[in-house]
Amino acid sequence: MRTKCSFLLFFSFILPLALAKLTPNFYSSSCPEAESIIFIVVQRRFNTDRSITGALLRMHFHDCFSGNGCDASILIDSTSRSQPEKDSGSNLTVRGYEIIDEIKNALEQKCPSTVSCADIIALATRDAVALAGGRNYSLPTGRRDGLRSNADEVNLPGTSLSVPNVLQMFAEKGFNTTETVAILGAHTVGVVHCSFFQDRLADSDMDPAFAQELSKACEASSGSDDPVTNLDHGTPTALDSQYYNQTLFKRGVLRIDQALALDASTRDIVAHFANDEDDFQLSFAHVMVKLGSLQVLTDGQGEIRQNCRAFNRDNNASKPNRGRGLK
Fold first, then answer.
1. pLDDT of 319 higher than 90
2. What per-residue confidence (pLDDT) applies to 13?
3. DSSP readout, 57-109?
């Protein structure tokens, strides 16, 4: 009990002021069925593709952690005049955009110009986490969509960074060490391209048998120049603490995953989460709420996009004015 309490104390802090501007059940009057509509679409996709949890977690993280914060700027498509966040090298393998489109289309039919794309990403991710076995956390809403998206503004922690460098990047966003280890637990679901880890298959901190397993998995995949494999080879589609357990046995796929279990500043936290599923679930839910509050736009800021892939000004400009010139 003392150990658990000592770790939970790390989470005794005041969330960013922006979170105070978000409220639970924000759409209870303007679009009361919003969260149910989102859940139905996510559940339907999850039933046929359980990797969608990892895809949405990655999209949500990439949107919130870099650029302009949680403003759905990652969803903007490129035009002849712009190169948005989606075109950044770090975001080229982000997927799941089509499920956001499906949700937005359903919501626009029910409640036009009401539910933001930023809230759709956050709520869809929350639902996917719960469907994968994670805690169904309460998520405040009321985010609005951003008005700019630039590939040059994307700055995300790379998979080969050292633990101190990763901790520094997260600290700049307001996350302490325990929260950083908790949020990296998202690697317990989803897949990774072989190119992200093949350079470490001979590392001494990787179990040789596991390295051979990964090598065979990459070689066996056909039809792709850069095949994928699961990040968690224990319970790959479950949101659980097995990610940490795997690293204790030198079965971390990415260099940063394994480094967390070896670095003096993080190894005790990794061991704690590996042995306390309940505390991991609580901690993960906490950091997801915190992630979703980064630099949010609220009240009259930004806009509510009609099409998540385009700013309203561009979306409206692309529509023909059928009434002009007619008599």
1. no
2. 43
3. HHHHHHHHHSTTSSSSGGGPPPBTTB--GGGSGGGTT---HHHHHHHHHHHHH
Around 66, how many Cα atoms within 13 Å sit in the side-chain half-sphere? 22
Q: How far apart are CA 227 and CA 100, in angstroms?
A: 25
Q: What are the angstrom distances between the C-alpha of 126 and each of 10, 35, 38?
A: 23, 11, 10
Structure tokens of 286?
């906490």
Cβ-count burial of 98 within 10 angstroms (0-12 exposed, 13-18 middle, 19+ buried)?
exposed
| 199-230 pLDDT per residue, tens | 999 999 999 999 999 999 888 765 667 889 99
The strand pairing partners of 144, in sequence order, are 297
Of the residues 62, 187, 272, 286, only one is catalytic, namely: 62
| Beta carbons of 134 and 111 less than 8 angstroms apart | no
Tens digits of residue pLDDT in 61-70: 999 998 789 9
d(CA 304, CA 318): 17
Which of 19-28, 53-62, 173-182, 253-262 is least confident? 19-28
Helix, coil or strand: residue 60: helix
- Candidates 276, 250, 68; CA nearest to 182 is 276
Can you name the residues that pair with 119 across neighbouring β-strands? Answer: none
Q: Are 81 and 125 in contact (CB under 8 A)?
A: no
**CA angle, 35 then 232 then 119, to 5°:** 20
Respond yes or no: is residue 233 known to be catalytic.
no
